[in-house]
Amino acid sequence: MKKIVLTGGGTAGHVTPNIALLPSLRKASYEISYIGSYKGIEKELIEAEKVPYYAISSGKLRRYLDIKNLSDPFKVVKGLGQSIHLLHKLKPDIVFSKGGFVSVPVVLAAKFCHIPVIIHESDITPGLANKIAIPAAKKVCCNFPETLNYLPKEKAVLTGSPIRQELLAGVAENARSYCHFNTDKPVLLIIGGSTGSKVINDAIRAQLPVLLKNFQIIHLCGKGNLDDTLMNTKGYAQFEYISQQLKDMFALANLVISRAGANAICELLALHKPNILIPLSAAASRGDQILNAKSFEKQGFSYVIEEEKLTADSLQSAVDTVFSQKEDYIAAMKKSTQIDSIDKIMDLIEKELAH
């Protein structure tokens, strides 16, 4: 039986693409193992998928001054030793890495053990962990055409991001019932991330009376961000977080407002959902969401509002514009070649094993 080790963690974005690959890997008769950190979000997510999980020591690689910079390199070295031991034990034919700091010792160990590695980079510019790992990789998959400029030409492959196939099988009427919507008004879905976004929440709620004239609204506002004064507002359904019902909400939505994390926007692309992206500001990140959003805007997939320019008025203008031009956005997304990424990545894996 062919064996593969998956790795990646730190955030859900470094795990869900790996989860999206699981059905195809199982169908192709791979024996799958996962190497992640002791306490990262990947442990819970992967164990829920019934995949054997192995934890290693993981240190964070920082670009800024921090006292932990003195101790974390030792954690990485320890993780490297643990990874070498695990790879000797598991004997995989190939390693697939989704990035995040925990993946660095795994990828370096794979090179030491002469095991081929394929890496996936979600954002336009590679993060620090992947920058360290890329020299050890045979191929580097990416989401955006612009990313090809930052990668070794002989390794770079534009694949798009693996999308959980269950997201494509939502039932709109299930979401309509769950949200207690009883009209045929179009539905606006707002996704601010698991922790929510105060600036997005405030803009939506400030404009709520106007938006509700033309839309029913599903607002995923983040943990601790429910507004009790709006609980009984007709046509407005707010939730801290949604998991199982998300596919149905996507199916029901006519327009989506979202942050611009790479996995999130690739899901919108695969679902052909007209969307407005409000990327996390450069002050609160390394600016990757801004670059992601600009790429999607350039390709005609998205309308972008900079967080600093988000107001109730700019939000309303964007909603009116995108909804009136929704067929143009859908047509552009349907032309994209970045949607069948699972097949492309599986093909790369098989080709590496054939060498």
From TrEMBL:
<feature type="binding site">
    <location>
        <position position="194"/>
    </location>
    <ligand>
        <name>UDP-N-acetyl-alpha-D-glucosamine</name>
    </ligand>
</feature>
<dbReference type="InterPro" id="IPR006009">
    <property type="entry name" value="GlcNAc_MurG"/>
</dbReference>
<dbReference type="GO" id="GO:0050511">
    <property type="term" value="F:undecaprenyldiphospho-muramoylpentapeptide beta-N-acetylglucosaminyltransferase activity"/>
</dbReference>
<dbReference type="GO" id="GO:0008360">
    <property type="term" value="P:regulation of cell shape"/>
</dbReference>
<dbReference type="GO" id="GO:0051301">
    <property type="term" value="P:cell division"/>
</dbReference>
<comment type="similarity">
    <text>Belongs to the glycosyltransferase 28 family. MurG subfamily.</text>
</comment>
<dbReference type="GO" id="GO:0071555">
    <property type="term" value="P:cell wall organization"/>
</dbReference>
<comment type="function">
    <text>Cell wall formation. Catalyzes the transfer of a GlcNAc subunit on undecaprenyl-pyrophosphoryl-MurNAc-pentapeptide (lipid intermediate I) to form undecaprenyl-pyrophosphoryl-MurNAc-(pentapeptide)GlcNAc (lipid intermediate II).</text>
</comment>
<dbReference type="InterPro" id="IPR004276">
    <property type="entry name" value="GlycoTrans_28_N"/>
</dbReference>
<dbReference type="GO" id="GO:0005975">
    <property type="term" value="P:carbohydrate metabolic process"/>
</dbReference>
<feature type="binding site">
    <location>
        <begin position="11"/>
        <end position="13"/>
    </location>
    <ligand>
        <name>UDP-N-acetyl-alpha-D-glucosamine</name>
    </ligand>
</feature>
<dbReference type="Pfam" id="PF03033">
    <property type="entry name" value="Glyco_transf_28"/>
</dbReference>
<keyword id="KW-1003">Cell membrane</keyword>
<feature type="binding site">
    <location>
        <position position="289"/>
    </location>
    <ligand>
        <name>UDP-N-acetyl-alpha-D-glucosamine</name>
    </ligand>
</feature>
<keyword id="KW-0961">Cell wall biogenesis/degradation</keyword>
<feature type="domain" description="Glycosyltransferase family 28 N-terminal">
    <location>
        <begin position="4"/>
        <end position="140"/>
    </location>
</feature>
<keyword id="KW-0472">Membrane</keyword>
<comment type="pathway">
    <text>Cell wall biogenesis; peptidoglycan biosynthesis.</text>
</comment>
<keyword id="KW-0328">Glycosyltransferase</keyword>
<keyword id="KW-0132">Cell division</keyword>
<keyword id="KW-0808">Transferase</keyword>
<protein>
    <recommendedName>
        <fullName>UDP-N-acetylglucosamine--N-acetylmuramyl-(pentapeptide) pyrophosphoryl-undecaprenol N-acetylglucosamine transferase</fullName>
        <ecNumber>2.4.1.227</ecNumber>
    </recommendedName>
</protein>
<feature type="domain" description="Glycosyl transferase family 28 C-terminal">
    <location>
        <begin position="187"/>
        <end position="342"/>
    </location>
</feature>
<keyword id="KW-0133">Cell shape</keyword>
<keyword id="KW-0131">Cell cycle</keyword>
<dbReference type="Pfam" id="PF04101">
    <property type="entry name" value="Glyco_tran_28_C"/>
</dbReference>
<dbReference type="GO" id="GO:0005886">
    <property type="term" value="C:plasma membrane"/>
</dbReference>
<keyword id="KW-0573">Peptidoglycan synthesis</keyword>
<feature type="binding site">
    <location>
        <position position="164"/>
    </location>
    <ligand>
        <name>UDP-N-acetyl-alpha-D-glucosamine</name>
    </ligand>
</feature>
<dbReference type="InterPro" id="IPR007235">
    <property type="entry name" value="Glyco_trans_28_C"/>
</dbReference>
<dbReference type="GO" id="GO:0009252">
    <property type="term" value="P:peptidoglycan biosynthetic process"/>
</dbReference>
